[in-house]
């Protein structure tokens, strides 16, 4: 995002504080410097030359970039986009950060390598719809029902891990590649809420391009599924953790879908959209804050009657498993896509 756009956006802030009460960091730290309103005030001070970069950098670093403020802002300020971009500009990727990112991506690269020798499942019935398969699913070389009905779009990473580590060069490279594909596509289907949200934040996409971007729940909403005969989830209770970056309408489609499955009871989780605390690399750089947020989520899960927790973001899946580890409360946690693949059939 250009600095002019940032200036225009921050001038729209009415200081209403609706973002403060929804900020997971504020809930833990009770410090307005770390909320969207506080950060916008500071950025405004920076633009006016009243504050230095150093005075805002520390507070900006603590932001989880969860988008809770953006989705509750009546002035429709895309706060997450501003904070993520400014954060990356203030902390350009140094050798240590690049090294860290490379180490973090090593397991994914290794999985790519060992799976290179496995044949990809070919299917006859491919649609014109493109599949944006997230890095983790690609690395695991998972072939799911989405591979059966969609065409692999040859996308690069959504760029979020690069932006979070201050690597604007690789972020821009991934963005350029993905935009070229989206512009030529009819529709692009996502199975990770965070990847979808990161792509929707590309400034260069027109409103028309953004209309092409859909979550896979959109394809399921008119279909009726049932549990496989041998499913271990017959007559069990299932719930869904809404990733912070998931659109409300995508979540509603998922709830409707899960509620319609025979012999399975869907129960909405209390605080279904409260953050899991993991936030990708956030957990590594801010383990104490991350764990405090995770413990709150863990308690909600523990108190729920659910036998199975579903979600649609690999980072949240890891976060939810970690929550259960620290609260010694083990409930099965799965990606919704994998649950459909392994446990359901079309009725
Ligand atoms: S909700 Fe939006 S307008 Fe209100 S204080 Fe927060 S950023 Fe500003
Ligand atoms: S993105 Fe999340 S953590 Fe950051 S200021 Fe907004 S609500 Fe708080």
Number of domains: 3
Mean pLDDT equals 85
Uncertain segments of ≥5 residues (pLDDT<50)?
Answer: 111-125
CATH architecture of the largest domain: 3-Layer(aba) Sandwich
Order of helices and strands: HHHHHHHEHHEHHEHHEHEEHEHHEHEHE
Task: Give the helix/strand class.
Answer: alpha/beta
Identify the CATH class of the largest domain. Answer: Alpha Beta
Instruction: Give the N-to-C terminal Cα separation.
Output: 46 Å
How many helix segments?
A: 19
The ligands bound in this entry are:
iron/sulfur cluster
Tally of extended strands?
A: 10
The order of strands across the largest sheet is 2-1-3-4
**Helicity range of the residues?**
40-55%
Looking at this protein, list some descriptive labels.
single chain; alpha/beta; Fumarate Reductase Iron-sulfur Protein, Chain B, domain 2; Rossmann fold; four-stranded parallel β-sheet; 10 strands; globular; binds iron/sulfur cluster
In short:
51% of the residues lie in helices and 10% in strands.
Give the topology, please.
Layout: H1 3-10, H2 24-29, H3 36-47, H4 53-62, H5 68-71, H6 79-90, H7 95-115, E1 130-132, H8 135-139, H9 145-149, E2 151-152, H10 160-164, H11 168-184, E3 188-190, H12 193-200, H13 207-211, E4 213-215, H14 217-220, E5 225-227, E6 236-240, H15 248-259, E7 264-266, H16 282-285, H17 287-303, E8 308-311, H18 314-326, E9 332-335, H19 336-343, E10 344-346
Parallel strand pairs: 1-2, 1-3, 3-4, 6-7, 6-8, 8-9
Antiparallel strand pairs: 5-10
The structure holds iron/sulfur cluster (2 copies).
One iron/sulfur cluster (SF4) is lined by residues 13-19, 36-37, 40, 69, 73, 75, 77, 79.
